[in-house]
Amino acid sequence: MKLPTKPRSLPMPLWLQGVFELGQAALISALLVVLPVAAVWLTGGFADRTAESAARLAGQGWLVMHGVPLVLQFPAGVAGAEASAGLLHVIPFGLILVPLLLAWRAGRRLARASYTDQLWQALLGALVTYAAIGAAVAYMSTSADASAPLAAGALIPPVSAGMGLITGAYREAGAWSRLVGVDFAAWVGRTSQHSRWAGSYAWSVLRSGFLAVLVAAGLSAVLLAVAIGLNWAGIAAIYERIDGGIAGASVVTLLQLGLLPNFAAWTMAWSTGAGFALGTGSSITPLASTVGPLPALPVLGALPAGILEYGYAALAIPVVAGLLAGWWFFREGENHFDEWLVLHSKQRWLTATASTLALAGLIGIAAGLGGAAVAALSRASLGLGRLTELGPDPLTVGLWFAIEVAVGALLGHAVGPLLEREPRRR
């Protein structure tokens, strides 16, 4: 037997591969912040900042991109008569997609390189690395004006990275059984028939609620795009007043693109009738708007002003979302609660009414919880004066959204048999 002339190279340990994958993701996501900050500094945009100060600012931007709050220190005369501190907090949905998608890619690569019972090693190494990077960035980016708690820097960035890792690994594995070593289908098969029916019914209700949130968010994004297009002249005027040059305008545009999904969530809250706030004491609803002084962000030029004559028409968005959710549930064919009622009563008019009302209420509750979660995550605070309350109130949005989606789901499930009627054969 002929021996190999070269020694075989040792395979890279899985934990080390996880370190490499998410370390690479952290570096690429950092470039999204470092390059714009460097461009502004090189063009003289930060006249009073040294290179070290600009680097700390970039580190703070990387933390904010992951949803880490910053503690701001305001000198006397800025936020009031005396020096004060405030909390800047925002989760920029558009920017946080960058590390999430990079982690999704890393999750696929790690799942491809691991056996089922070894994947945890790669995931653990990756998440520990991201936590260490977050803590290091929080420590090194601390300045007299702003700082991030080390615990927040270590624990919050791995949340989005972990979501990307798990979904990417699941996408590569194709099934949770291959990912975690547990066959959920076999586990469900060992339960009773009634439990399977109840589980299928509950799962379909949750998916219908998720569909309602998704449709409402999509229609709200279209409405936001129309508002931006109609008010483009006012937005361009704000750009001219900022006068930050090419680098400054690019940074402002990048910031707005990162916050556009947040603004779409605020538009969804606006369409429910609950509205949102742009500062303490302000209220922006489909019927009227009351705002105070606002930051010079060009996209805010698309805000509705005064009394809107046809603003109530926006209330149709959550109702349409509920209608599609109710129709989808009818097509899914998992209304086992209606089947259970039929077995216990021969009054079809009563069982059909009760099951439809119960279904509409449950879909509304599921959608309301989802809408409240979106509203809560989209809120922001600049930590200064009245700008500590930015965004919708989650409880109010969830309540209004649940009611309107329930009305739509009732209509959608009621007209489902008419929409799904098979054509007559000649």
Automatic annotation (TrEMBL):
Keywords from the UniProt entry: Membrane, Transmembrane, Transmembrane helix
Tree of life domain: Bacteria
Annotated InterPro entries: DUF6350 (IPR045931)
UniProt keyword DNA-binding present: no
Residues spanning the membrane: 20-42, 54-74, 86-107, 119-140, 210-233, 245-266, 310-330, 350-377, 397-419
The keyword Transmembrane helix is assigned to this record: yes
Protein name per UniProt: Integral membrane protein
